[in-house]
Design brief:
By secondary structure, the protein is α/β, with parallel strands linked by helices. It has one domain. Helix content is 48%, strand content 9%. The mean pLDDT is 89.
Length: 274
């Protein structure tokens, strides 16, 4: 009798579970625009806290960047978005036009925009390049500057974890070529780590109960939201394909924004870096 009772309860439970609704939500518009979202290290001068040692005038470095451009150009973007403020769009367009006329021209202080974005545009026949950056004051080394923060453990443990991952994966950015650096900068776990370090981890920084770290992290979130808003203000059509090139931390934020955006469909970045 006892076994019969258990059997009946089990069957009833199974029926109840099978009767539960199964949802299948469409999260993208049918005509969602494909976007290739690529994170880069900064190849020239940058105000960002994170920088990589890179000689932007070295011929071999330029050759490697242009080899990478060939891979990215296979995406065939019709629009390119870069980490510059929108008020500079006319200047960007003029420089890009000059580059198309003379791809061997020299730039006094080239960055990833002149070295990579322009070359991708030239190979792809891209007509428009827009800046979408937004500047916001943000104090990166907050945690190291605060001696009286309440949580003195988390940041230290994070640094140890970061070093462990570098050692385990044999990462030495100083010895990596351009292709290897881009492959690293666009790994999903690496991008998540950039958000952790530049924003989320700051929520552990408080003094006398006041969340100073969260205050700074909010500024960085705001900057990236403004950048995404600038992207959404770019005139696009259903036939466009967008290549976004920014510092990898911004790329990390954009991956979250793009995943939830109904009007945009992010393609797999790593497919274009192999």
């Amino acid at each position: 009798m006892k076994n019969l009772f258990i059997t009946i309860i089990t069957v009833l439970g199974s029926v109840n579970l099978s009767a539960q609704a199964k949802y299948n939500f469409q999260t993208k518009f049918d005509d969602a625009i494909p976007v290739l979202n690529v994170g880069t290290f900064h190849m020239g001068y940058t105000t960002d806290a994170n920088s990589t040692e890179f000689d932007e005038h070295n011929k071999e470095n330029i050759r490697q960047v242009h080899e990478l451009a060939k891979k990215i150009a296979e995406f065939k973007p019709t629009i390119i978005l870069v980490e510059q403020e929108p008020y500079k769009n006319k200047r960007i367009a003029a420089a890009y036009s000059d580059y198309l006329k003379n791809p061997k021209m020299k730039f006094e202080k080239p960055t990833e925009i002149e070295l990579l974005a322009y070359e991708v545009g030239r190979l792809s026949g891209t007509k428009q390049i827009y800046g979408i950056d937004y500047q916001k004051d943000y104090y990166y080394p907050l945690s190291s500057a605060l001696k009286d923060q309440q949580d003195t453990i988390t940041y230290k443990k994070y640094g140890e974890l970061f070093s462990l991952n570098e050692k385990k994966n044999k990462i030495n950015e100083d010895k990596m070529n351009v292709a290897e650096l881009f492959w690293l900068n666009n790994q999903p776990d690496y991008l998540d780590a950039l958000i952790n370090y530049n924003a989320d981890l700051l929520t552990t920084v408080s003094v006398n109960g006041y969340p100073l770290g969260a205050e700074q992290a909010a500024k960085f979130y705001e900057r990236n939201l403004w950048m995404f808003a600038n992207m959404n203000n770019v005139p696009i059509t259903k036939d466009d394909r967008i290549f976004v090139l920014m510092g990898a931390t911004h790329t990390a934020f954009f991956k979250d924004f793009l995943r939830r955006s109904q009007k945009i469909r992010e393609v797999n970045t790593l497919d274009y870096l192999k």
